[in-house]
Amino acid sequence: LGAQQLVLAQRPIHYDESKVPDLILPDVLVGYDGSLIKTPGDWEYQRRPELVAKFADQVYGQVPKDFDQIAFEVKAQPNHPHSKYSNLKEVAIYISRKGKTQIMQVKLYLPKDANKPVPVFVLISHRNVETVTGDIENRFFPVEQIVSRGYAAAIFDVEFVSPDDPDRYTVGILDELYPEQKTMPNGMKGLSAWAWGAVRVMDYLEKDPEVDASRAAVIGHSRGGKAALWTGANDTRWAITISNESGCGGAALSKRMIGETVNRINTGFPYWFSDNFKAYNDKEDELPLDQHQLIASIAPRAVYVGSSKDDTWADPKGEFLSLKIGSQVYSEIYGLDLDFPEDYKLEVQTIHQKNVGYHLREGKHDLTAYDWGKVLDFADMQYGLK
Ligand code: GTR
C-alpha cells in the first residue's frame, strides 16, 4: 500500500466528543510489577524510570546517552538584530562518538543588563526561524519579549540533529553518531533525536557562567512540544518542561482517538516515532501506556501545557485531561495542593499552580506572544521572581 491508500484505509478522523470511547487509562501509580507507588523514592527509582523506558520502547525510540566527547566553541556575535537589548552568543557543540563528529549550532541571547546568572528558555525549533533568517519580527521566538523579562533565550534548530523531513531525517546524528539505531524497532527517530539535541544544549548551559542552568525551561510547539515533553521526561536537569499545543504523541491522550490519531500521525510522519509505535495504528486501546504518564514522568519538576481553542486537531480537552490525570503524582506523591476544575470547558483560562501550569487561549494552532507571556509568568512564579 502506498501512503495515499493507507490514509484512505484508516479509521475516519472525527471531532465528535460523543464518539470518544470510555477512557480506560493505565495507572500512573501502580508499577509494572503490580506494586503501589507511594513515596518519592518509589516514584523516582522505580516507577518514573520504568515509564520512561516504556515510552522509549513503545513510542519514541531511544535517546542514547553514550558518546565519547563533547566540546563547545563560543563566539560573541556583536552584530545581530536584537543587539539593542541583548548579547548574542553563538555556540557550536561538537559531539563525537566512534571517530565521527556532529556539530550543533545554538544561539543564546542574554539580557544586556544582567549582573548575575539568568534563568533560560530553550526553544526546540522546527521552523527554521531565527537560525536561518534572523527575522526580528518572529513571534515564534520573541527574543525581546523573553530577555526583557530577565531570561536568556536560546534556540536550536532540529535541522542540526535530524532534519524534519521524511527523506533526510537520518542526515545528522542517526547517520553520523548512532547508525545502529536505524534498524532497531525501538531505535531513535526524529523526536528522540530532537530530544537528544536539547539534552546536549543543557550540557552546554551547565558550563556557561552567565546562565543559571538550575532554572532552565525547555519549550516546543506542536511537533517541537512533543519533543520538549520527551526531553523533560528523559533529562531531570530541566526545571520546567513546556508543551505548546503538542497534541497527538505529545500532551494529548491517544486513547481518546479524536482529532489526530496514532494511525494518522504515523502515516503522515513515519520518521517521528519508533517503528514499534506503528503497531498501535487504529489500536489505541492496546497501547500499554498513554500520554498522561509522559506528563507524570516529568514530576517532580514543573510541567506546563498550553492549548488553543481552535486547535481541535491537537485535542485541547485531551491535553487538559492528560495534565490533570498525570499530575496526580505531584499531589499524591509530593503532597502539592492542586486544584483543577471538575469538568473541562473549552474556555479561555489560566491555571498556574506550583509545578503544574496550564492555559487555553483563543485562536488557532501557533506559538504566540500570548503563549510566551503565560509561560514567562509561570516561570516567574516557579522561581519566586514575582
Ligand atoms: C501536524 C501534525 C501534528 C503537529 C503539527 C505541527 O501536521 O499532524 O501532529 O505536530 O503538524 O507540528 O505543527
UniProtKB/TrEMBL annotation:
Residues 93-331 form the 4-O-methyl-glucuronoyl methylesterase-like domain. Keywords: Hydrolase, Serine esterase, Signal. SUPFAM superfamilies: alpha/beta-Hydrolases. Pfam families: GCE_fung. The keyword Hydrolase applies. PANTHER family: DIENELACTONE HYDROLASE DOMAIN-CONTAINING PROTEIN-RELATED (PTHR22946), POLYKETIDE TRANSFERASE AF380 (PTHR22946:SF9). This is Acetylxylan esterase.
